[in-house]
Description:
- By secondary structure, the chain is of the alpha+beta class.
- Helix content is 43%, strand content 28%.
Amino acid sequence: MSSWAPGSFLDRLEPELQGKLLALGVTRVISSGRRIFTEGGQDTHVEIIQRGVAKVTMSVGGTEQLLAVRLPGDLVGEFAALTDGQRIATVTACGEVRATVVQQSVFRAFLSRHLEVASEVTATVGRRLHWANLRRADFSAFPVPVRLARVLLELVEVIGEPVEGGVRIAVDLTHAELATLIGAVDDTVQRTLRGMRDDGVIRTGYRRITVTDPDQLRRRAEEAL
């Protein structure tokens, strides 16, 4: 049984192709808080996360905004590798991350030999664009409590860790980062989280959220559907 996140890039490849691709690179361990890629950087290699979680952020008006989280089995850095462009976002390790570095020329050559992998890279980019479009649609279609419930539910489903009394989201998230994910202001997110906590839906700690009532969270996420 693989340790890749369900639906991740590696999870969608046949085991033989997974092994061949990983064998092309050098695996390294990245300490918590260290940048894997830096927005505006000129490097063009890709990295495949094997263990751990990373945040994807972008600077907007001088403020770091959270765009997404990447999980075991996810490919990162593919845009620069395929376009020869600069890095469009910063990727930072959340806790210790183990990742395999594959140089651009090697990665491109592998894709040319294995068209099914190239197709999966294209599909990965498409799914990420689709996710971003859904978030933007949510901004206008749903109120903040529903948007926040939907994002928390997604995070629980992909990076939830069972703990005593609930399921903890296995990545540190600030109120500001949650706000950028759902297109809200920090104060509104804080009030909404406080309401969820008072209602027994979540338990919060420093940058940590534990969902104590997943069923109620799901009802709130589906409230306007």
